[in-house]
């Protein structure tokens, strides 16, 4: 059975805060998702951004079948010890040639580690649902997006975005809010597939994230009042409990691409299916 490593870049305080609200850190949430999708896999979690955390060598990382990078509040354009440690970890992953996948901040870490840039989104953000994502010409034929509809919605909560992709990267999808919603990065010996949205998260977790960020959502103009955020979060949580309810899908303006668990996780499933064919020398 495969052996997976999940790298979470939340600080200890951020992990504790997420557990208090959600019951799990981002890495633990990712581990649950992977465990459901591939029962029997060996799944380990590490915290490469933490001071004193074990430092993985490229040789040690090569022993894993895949590395997954979670979302987090990390801002990779900040020159902090936490960011530097996280980027060093990702560069070791690329050097190892171990296939990797990341969502949200995970995509951003891979971009910067390979030489691209990330920025704070100018006067906008995506929260709750990333709308009308469309594959590029390259993305339509890429296995990461196999089975995706011509346009789709996905769970998302982010205020940072990819500004420029690094050399060796291919933009696979975008929307009107964020130019890079999915990408492949080839760097050193490694291949990384990533998305700006959150295929690993349940709708219930997204509802909790909206409630945690209520003040920021009102300040960003996505809602007029905290009550509006709560209303949206309540519908999202209800759809989590009853994904087949057409009335809830209608209220959120979504279809099965977001409401159905398997469809929501499509990119992760495609990555897992492609692992045997991803060459560890940087070629598919």
UniProtKB/TrEMBL annotation:
A UniProt-annotated Pfam family: GATase
Location of the region described as Disordered in the Swiss-Prot/TrEMBL record: 1-33
GO molecular function terms attached to this record: GMP synthase (glutamine-hydrolyzing) activity
Annotated Glutamine amidotransferase domain residues: 60-205
E.C. number(s) listed in UniProt: 6.3.5.2
InterPro entries: ChyE-like, Class_I_gatase-like, GATASE
Keywords assigned: Ligase
Name the UniProt record assigns to this protein: GMP synthase (Glutamine-hydrolyzing)
Native source species: Sphingomonas endophytica
């Amino acid at each position: 059975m495969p052996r997976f490593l999940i790298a979470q870049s939340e600080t200890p305080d951020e992990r504790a805060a997420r557990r208090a609200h959600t019951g799990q850190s981002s890495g633990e949430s990712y581990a649950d998702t992977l465990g459901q999708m591939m029962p029997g896999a060996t799944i380990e979690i590490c915290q490469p951004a933490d001071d004193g955390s074990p430092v993985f060598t490229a040789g040690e990382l090569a022993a894993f079948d895949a590395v997954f990078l979670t979302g987090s509040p990390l801002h990779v354009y900040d020159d902090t010890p936490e960011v530097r440690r996280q980027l060093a970890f990702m560069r070791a992953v690329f050097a190892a040639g171990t296939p990797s996948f990341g969502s949200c901040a995970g995509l951003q870490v891979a971009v910067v580690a390979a030489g691209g840039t990330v920025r704070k989104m100018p006067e906008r953000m995506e929260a709750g649902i990333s709308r009308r994502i469309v594959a590029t010409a390259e993305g339509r034929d890429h296995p990461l997006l196999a089975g995706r509809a011509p346009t789709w919605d996905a769970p998302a909560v982010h205020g940072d975005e990819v500004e420029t992709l690094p050399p060796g990267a291919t933009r696979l999808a975008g929307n009107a809010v964020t130019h890079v919603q999915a990408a492949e990065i080839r760097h050193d010996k490694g291949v990384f597939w990533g998305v700006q949205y959150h295929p690993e998260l349940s709708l219930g977790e997204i509802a909790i994230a909206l409630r945690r960020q209520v003040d920021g959502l009102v300040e960003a103009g996505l809602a007029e009042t905290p009550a509006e955020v709560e209303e949206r979060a309540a519908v999202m949580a209800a759809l989590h409990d009853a994904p087949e309810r057409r009335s809830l899908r209608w209220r959120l303006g979504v279809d099965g691409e977001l409401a159905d668990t398997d469809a929501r996780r499509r990119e992760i499933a495609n990555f897992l299916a492609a692992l045997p064919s991803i060459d560890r020398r940087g070629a598919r």
